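Changelog-adjacent note: as of this version, every example in the card shows the full chain rather than a window. The one below runs 369 residues end to end.
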Amino acid sequence: MNRRQFISYSGVGLAVVGGIYIFNPLAQLNTTVRGNLRNHVKGVDDDSLEIIYLASLAPSGHNTQPWTVKIMEHNHWIIGTDITRWLSVVDQENREMLLSIGAFMENLIVAANVKGYEVEVAVVAKTLQDKDIIDIKLHKGNYLRNFDVNKIKLRRTVRSNFLKDELSGEDVRLFTESNSKSFLYYARQSKEGNYLAEGTLLANQSQTYRNSAQEELAKWIRWSNDEIKYYGNGLTPETMEIDGIARWYVRNFYSSQSALGTGFREATIKRIQEQVAAGSGWLLITSKDSSIPELIDAGRRLQRIWLEVREKNIAIHPMNQMLEEVAIRHEMASALSITEPIQMLLRIGYINDYPQPVSPRMLLSKIIL
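Full-length structure tokens:
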């Protein structure tokens, strides 16, 4: 069997999520990737390190982890972004980067509240290319939020083994009841659900066979343990859910150029076809407009629901390719009769066994400036 056949039969070319995903704590990876994250930053107190660490478990496109934290003075920080971690091909407007910053902020605020801090937030970015985004100040007080931070640590993206069961009415309300104007749910077998499945497949085909998008993806895949430990970000065989002998093979024989091969691309599209045919349905997140504060708020709302679904065995799989392809995005809003900007497209559904998080995380010394 030649290499191309191996790729196709093993399913190595897994669907890679466009937009936010990821993502998180480590299982199955060498613990040094995560074990000493807090020990590499001097002059920052333990509370701050723990808060920033928990914030860093947020999702981001291709797991680039675009956030930075500039320490201005004690409990006064600027949350920003590193231009080297932008996705300039599939996220030219930095829309998804700001959604990721919003998810980071939700984690940060929750973690700070648990430690008794109130958080004062001011958006300072004026353009989508500004590197300083949010000014925050932490105020210690009597406020103490009761929240299990293990929800932050255990959140992950799931891509495989979705059941085809419909969401219960109670679980649909979990997503939509308090967010009826900004969270829209479409069952998989509905007219809208079929449209989103077909559109997602089409958008993935467009990106997979466009060299610039595939080259950007290849840049962020970490095939070996050495790469994972060195970078602490990007997509790994574990996050792409490559199992068994296929995982061993790609760890030992793949390079950054492997994702550009025909076999990998063909297998990716095959896996996308399987994915869009499974699950309960699709969840869209909209916003009032596409301003910086609204994008950050949309990211916070995404993270808020993501922290609640694991206990219900509901998986979330961001599939934003329709939104990344401009022509398809415009048609999508019209086809669904949605007037507000669509910011996220999520495939959701029940799973029998919720897997542990496996995404690597960068050392805090690479985040804190």
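Structural remarks: The domain at 3-13+156-350 is CATH 3.40.109.10 (NADH Oxidase).
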